[in-house]
Specification:
- The protein is of the alpha+beta class.
- The chain folds into 3 domains: 2-24 and 260-372, no CATH class; 43-180, no CATH class; 187-253.
- Helices cover 18% and strands 38% of the residues.
- The chain has 6 helices and 24 strands.
- It has helices at residues 31-34, 65-77, 203-217, 238-249, 336-345, 350-363, and strands at residues 2-6, 29-30, 35-37, 43-52, 94-102, 111-118, 129-136, 142-149, 155-159, 162-166, 171-180, 193-198, 222-224, 229-233, 252-253, 261-265, 270-273, 278-279, 282-286, 289-300, 311-322, 326-330, 366-367, 369-372.
- Strands 4-5-6-11-8-7 form a 6-stranded antiparallel barrel. A 4-stranded antiparallel sheet has the order 3-12-14-13.
- A hairpin with a 5-residue loop joins strand 7 and strand 8 (142-149).
- The protein is flat.
- It starts with a strand and ends with a strand.
- Residues 1-25 have low confidence and may be disordered.
Length: 373
């Protein structure tokens, strides 16, 4: 028997925890949590390398020819020339990509953690050693060198066709596995101004940041360039500038209320709303529909000595049940808590809520931005 149910049961919508209070107060936040200093940023680094010393779990070289080419090139650089036509059958080597982030103000000699990821068909990187790998930036320049023993958090075993595995075996990390070889130039110590960049563009928040900075450090210290960038006059010397930015980051600012937004995850049925979501007056109808398909086998048996064959067929019975729908009136200006209670009262599941909110938005009654991920 096959059973299909569409919106058949009342379920609790997992939004009540954040909707008990209709409009909670917005608290002041540190400026360092709302904005960053322009130019003070990380830079991504990437490199291609080889992991050796694997216990037979490396790349299958017939399917990953780039691993063999890399080994041959490495041996040539080390002064080892293989005879022409040599075919390498490697089991303990894996080609990998090495990634990390170069933090702001990193200087030569500092160490970085790196992530090592298999790019071939290696079964595991457990117990392997990464050979010296140059790490390059987006400009093609080398900013670091990585090497060391790869630590893999997973474990696996197989025998006689059976296999067991815990966590992932094709990715590992090397703590302090890379050394910075070149610093990234920045304009932090130049000029008499710094620029703050808000994490989210908002004219109201930018205006509040300017007011808070000018109140703390004096008039005309800060001015807004637009809804995201704020220009701040800073001391010229580095030591005074560092102290100034430290005090600036600790400044508390009350951000403006964010835009009303509803996030829908169509894959999981998750629905998240913020406190600014409200409704205009509207009516919502909801009904339940269930389809039951019952299949029974029917066997046709021929008479003895008739020469016939036994035939097996099936008959199906389809039963469609539709429960009466409900019409719920939602008043204008309803808070988020009231919206959730009302939709839960009519038996809306998270999947039903996706369709209901989309219909409300199309009708113009949902006062929020609808984003589907």
């Amino acid at each position: 028997m096959k059973y299909f149910t569409l919106s058949s049961k009342l379920v609790a919508i997992m939004l009540g925890a954040c909707c008990i209070a209709a409009t909670p107060a917005i608290h002041a936040e540190r400026l360092k949590d709302l904005a960053s200093v322009q130019g003070v940023r990380q830079n991504q680094l990437i490199g291609y390398g080889l992991v050796v010393g694997l216990d037979g779990s490396g790349d299958q070289t017939t399917q990953t020819p780039f691993t063999v080419q890399s080994v041959v090139s490495m041996l040539q650089n080390l002064g080892v020339n293989l005879p022409p036509g040599t075919t390498l059958q490697l089991k303990n080597v894996a080609a990998v990509m090495v990634t990390t982030s170069l933090p702001a103000f990193a200087q030569p000699g500092q160490t970085l953690d790196v992530t090592v990821s298999s790019m071939g068909n290696a079964k595991s990187l457990r117990g392997g050693t990464l050979l010296m790998t140059p790490l390059k930036g987006a400009d093609g320049q080398i900013y670091g060198m990585a090497q060391g023993n790869v630590l893999v958090g997973g474990v696996g075993a197989s025998a006689n066709g059976s296999k067991a595995q815990v966590n992932h075996l094709s990715v590992g990390r090397i703590s302090a596995g890379a050394t910075v070889e070149r610093a990234v130039p920045n304009a932090f110590g130049r000029g008499d101004t710094v620029f703050l960049e808000l994490n989210d563009s908002d004219f109201s928040t930018a205006s509040r940041v300017v007011d808070a900075v000018n109140k703390r450090f004096g008039p005309d210290t800060a001015s807004a360039q637009d809804g995201r960038v704020i220009r701040v006059r800073a001391p010229a010397t580095n030591d005074e500038r560092v102290a100034f930015l430290g005090a600036l980051e600790s400044l508390h600012v009350t951000p403006a209320q964010t835009n009303a937004k509803v996030i829908l995850n169509a894959r999981t049925g998750s629905v998240v709303m913020n406190q600014a979501v409200t409704l205009d007056a509207c009516a919502v109808s909801h009904g339940n529909l269930s389809v039951v398909i019952n299949t029974d086998p029917v066997i046709s048996q021929p008479a003895p000595l008739s020469g016939g064959q036994t035939v097996v067929t099936a008959t199906s019975q389809i039963d469609i049940k539709k429960e009466p729908g409900q019409v719920l009136l939602l008043k204008g200006g309803t808070s988020l808590a009231d919206v959730v209670k009302a939709l839960n009262a009519i038996g809306a599941t998270p999947q039903d809520l996706l369709a209901i909110l989309q219909a409300m938005k199309a009708a113009g009654s949902l006062r929020a931005e609808l984003e589907i991920i």
